[in-house]
Amino acid sequence: MGDFDLTGRVAIITGGNGGIGLGMADALARAGCAVSIWGRNPEKNARAAAQLRAHGGAVDARVCDVSDRKAVQAAFAATLAEFGRVDACFANAGIGGGGRRSFVDRSEEEWRQMFAVNLDSVFHLFQFAGRHMMDRAASGDAFGRLIATSSTASIFGTARNEHYAATKAAINALVRALAVELARYGVTANAILPGWIKSEMTAGIMTNEKFVGNVMPRIPMRRFGEPEDFGGLAVYLASKASSYHTAECFVVDGGYSAF
Question: Would you call 164 a catalytic residue per the annotation?
Answer without folding.
Answer: yes
